[in-house]
Structure formats: C-alpha cells, structure tokens
From TrEMBL:
PANTHER family: TRANSCRIPTIONAL REGULATORY PROTEIN NARL-RELATED, TWO-COMPONENT RESPONSE REGULATOR
Response regulatory domain: residues covered: 4-116
Xref: CDD domains: LuxR_C_like
Residue span, HTH luxR-type domain: 143-208
Listed name of the protein: Transcriptional regulator
GO biological process terms held by the UniProt record: phosphorelay signal transduction system; regulation of DNA-templated transcription
Pfam families in alphabetical order: GerE
Keyword Transcription regulation belongs to the record: yes
Domain of life assignment: Bacteria
Keywords recorded for this protein, A-Z: DNA-binding, Transcription, Transcription regulation
PROSITE patterns assigned to the protein according to its UniProt record, in alphabetical order: HTH_LUXR_1, HTH_LUXR_2, RESPONSE_REGULATORY
Length: 224
C-alpha cells in the first residue's frame, strides 16, 4: 500500500519540488496541496497517512491549528532554524517530526516512511542542531524531576529516539529485543509525564536533559 501524502505549502516552487521528489518514490502517492486555512478540510476529505506542513503556511503562532491537524493525521513540520523554539512547541502539541528546510531529500523521505510506519518521532541532525541551542524554558519542577529520573538505558533510548531511530533500529543499536525497547519507551513516557515520543524529546531539549545526557556520556568516556 502506498503512503498517502498531503502537502500544506504556500509557495508554488516549493510545492513543485515536493511533487517532483515524491513522485520519484514508488511507495508514495501525493494527494495534492493545500494552504494553512484549508488544511483541516483537506485532511478530512483526502485522509492522508502523513501531512507535510511547510512554514509559513502555518506560522509561528499557529499551535492550535497544528494541534487540530495532529489529531487528524501524522504531521511532519518543516520550519526554519530560527523558528526552532516553535518547532519544540509543535512537538508538544502532537506534531510527529520536525525538519529544517536545509535537510536533505533523503532525510525527508526517511522521515515520511518512518512516521507513516508508526514511529512518533523523527528529528534528523539538521533539526537537532537548531534545537540544541535553545534556552531552557523553565518547565515545572515536576516535569524536570521526572526527566531526571531516567535510568542510563532509558537515557540512551531517548537519545536514539531524537536521532529518528525506529524501535527496530533502537533494538539493533542496543542489542536488545523489540519488546524490551517498547518497555523502555513506555517507561520514558511515563516518567516524563507525556503521551508521545515527540513530546518526550521536546521536553528533553527544553529542560536541558539532552545536554546533561551528553555531558554524562562524555564524562564516562573520559573515565574509561
């Protein structure tokens, strides 16, 4: 079965490029193009598996609209690096993946395939770099405490999720079973008080947990 994709984009050149790229993939079907205002109606009518939203078709202040779309289908957001803080907010309202506009075509195809297969989060390196520079947003003590309660293995899992790894890829990387990975992901979501991987990764960046994990890994490497 082909992956049915709807594109929300205000720029004709970008839309044409997206069409050309996706039409080259035998497992994709482009349902059409829409704009921000018409997106919800288009999703309801065409029922895509995945919707690509290219900013500024939905702008920095459109979190409510993104949340509404995320309740209807899986959303991949393409946003400029200087808008990264809004990308984090988008993850928190249910967007499944975030890409920077300078991400490669291969990144986009990988994201669409992974998200359509059920993965909740994809954030390739280009998008992660823009998010790593974000100031901490002062989330509540309770959220930060839950994040800090992650075990070393759970910390490894959330880093891999932020790299866009599927459950199978995480299992291969950590040399564990799929059932074990699912269990780790469940525990991560529960401890962080969220319902999706995207939200967990967003909180990990916002609270500084991701940076702390990196520092811990570096320290362990020095010890070894």
């Amino acid at each position: 079965m082909k992956i049915r994709v709807l594109v929300c984009c205000d720029e004709s050149i970008m839309s044409a490029a997206m069409r050309a790229l996706l039409d080259q993939q035998p497992d994709f079907e482009v349902l059409g193009f829409t704009t921000g205002r018409e997106s919800a109606a288009a999703v309801a009518e065409l029922t895509p598996h995945v919707m690509i939203v290219v900013a500024p078709a939905l702008g920095l202040d459109d979190s409510r609209e993104l949340a509404e779309l995320a309740a209807l289908t899986k959303i991949v957001l393409i946003a400029k690096a200087e808008s990264a803080h809004r990308s984090v907010e988008a993850l928190c309202v249910g967007v499944r993946a975030v890409l920077a506009p300078d991400s490669s075509a291969d990144d986009l195809i990988h994201v669409l395939r992974t998200v359509s297969a059920g993965a909740s989060m994809v954030m390739p390196a280009a998008a992660r770099r823009s998010l790593q520079g974000l100031p901490q947003q002062g989330r509540s003590y309770g959220t930060g405490r839950r994040a800090a309660d992650l075990t070393p293995r759970e910390s490894e899992v959330i880093v891999l999720l932020a790299q866009g790894k599927s459950n199978a890829e995480v299992a291969e990387k950590l040399s564990v079973s799929l059932a074990t990975v699912r269990s780790h992901v469940h525990h991560v979501l529960r401890k962080m008080g969220v319902s999706t991987r995207a939200q967990a990764v967003a909180i990990a960046y916002e609270t500084g947990l991701m940076a702390a994990i990196g520092r811990t890994a570096e320290f362990r490497g020095q010890e070894g």
